[in-house]
Amino acid sequence: MASTILIIDDDTKLNQLLKDFLKDFGYAVITATRPTQGLKKLKRDSADLVILDIMLPEMDGFEVCRAIRQTSTIPIIMLTARGEITDKVVGLELGADDYLAKPFEPRELVARIQSVLRRAHQLSDNQTLTFERLTIDLDKRIALLDGNPVNLTTNEFTALTLLARNAGKVLNRDQILQELRGMDCDAFNRSVDIAVSRLRQKLNDNPKSPEFIKTVWGSGYVFIAN
Fold first, then answer.
1. Which residues of 140-161 are buried (b: 16+ CB within 10 A; e: fewer)?
2. Residue 166 and residue 101 share a domain
3. Bridge partners, 160 (sequence order)
4. What pLDDT is stored for residue 187 in this prediction?
5. How many domains does the chain have?
6. Are 142 and 213 contained in the same domain?
7. pTM metric for this prediction
8. DSSP β-bridge partners for residue 222
9. Domain boundary residue among 100, 122, 144?
10. What is the pLDDT of residue 82?
């Protein structure tokens, strides 16, 4: 079954260009030129991934990303006209899965879409990782803390799964970044630190006295839960 892409961008010409281009790769495409319209379509339609521009009317892409993340873990690729590191870092901190600077080649966007969707699908392999307070269901792609679901993005779930599968083993940033592939390697691999920081917040894990993820200074991170 074809994956459905929701594009939220106020550039109607770009929307139509991407819609026609992505259809050639087998994707179903929904478009919206206003954030409120896009959020309504996200609730109404069954999309698999969102392409979200930062520069939008009504509210900027960061606000839209924040609104989506309140209720959904759907993969998000953000588009930025400036391509600035600060924009990328803010997007990642809000839960975006990837970013792409305008102008871009449509074929590169397709590669990013394929990579993000592949990461999401690869997490499902009919296994469950069980620890004292944390359960990670790889088939359903959910994590349960004390029996309660933890709302994780694709990148956060990927990082958690990698660390948990290698419990007791120190993984450096490059090893983790390989699992978060699709991200640019600039900003000193900030995508890794951001993903781990968000994970800690959602797991209520104090980095000064960690229960799940311990920082090994100069080396990387290690999963320590029993």
1. ebebbbeeeebebbbbbbbbbb
2. no
3. none
4. 42
5. 2
6. yes
7. 0.66
8. 214
9. 122
10. 64
Q: Is 200 left (phi over 0), alpha (psi -120 to 50) or beta?
A: alpha
- Same domain? 116 vs 133: no
Whole-number Cα distances in Å, 208 to 211, 213, 214: 10, 10, 9
**8-state DSSP, 71:** T
Q: Which residue has the tokens 């311990």?
A: 214
82 in the same domain as 56: yes
196-200: Cβ within 8 A, 24+ apart: 196/159, 196/221, 198/93, 198/95, 198/153, 198/156, 199/152, 199/156, 199/159, 199/160
User: Which residue type is seen at 132?
Assistant: E
**Predicted confidence (pLDDT) per residue in 59-98, tens digit:** 999 999 999 988 888 899 999 876 667 777 788 788 888 8
Mean pLDDT by 10 residues, the chain (226 residues): 90 95 94 95 91 93 92 88 72 84 90 85 68 88 92 88 90 83 52 88 94 92 92
